[in-house]
Amino acid sequence: MNSLATSVFSIAIPVDGDEDSASGGGVVAIDNKIEQAMDLVKSHLMYAVREEVEVLKEQIKELVERNSLLERENALLKSLSNNDQLSQLPTQQANPGSTSQQQAVIAQPPQPTQPPQQPNVSSA
């Protein structure tokens, strides 16, 4: 057990008889070792928490950017649609069967719109 504490925490914990326990120095030494071990654990936990906070901040940043992009796309689509199409939106949202179609449309990236091409008609 002592070797485990020594290898994990780099702290040697004296075993019975290693120090003069009659003077109370052994109790103080053990308390100091425990405090050192707790400080080491605390520093490792703080480091892990800081790393996790950085990861979460990056995810939040990405989600905010994505949300902004989707809001701009939504505004563009609303501006390109007519009132009849907009009036159908509340009925589609109320219909639970159409949500999978809406999700499939949302999941696909927007395709660039191109004007319809005129067919090649050769006059005979």
From TrEMBL:
Coiled coil: 46-80
Keywords noted in UniProt: Coiled coil
GO biological process, one term: regulation of transcription by RNA polymerase II
Keyword Coiled coil: yes
PROSITE patterns, per database record: TSC22 (PS01289)
Disordered: region residues: 80-124
Biased composition (Polar residues): 80-100
Listed Pro residues bias regions: 109-118
Highest taxon of source: Eukaryota
Keyword ATP-binding attached: no
A Pfam short name: TSC22
Xref: PANTHER family: TSC22 DOMAIN FAMILY PROTEIN 2
The family this protein is said to belong to: Belongs to the TSC-22/Dip/Bun family.
Identification of the protein by name: TSC22 domain family member 2
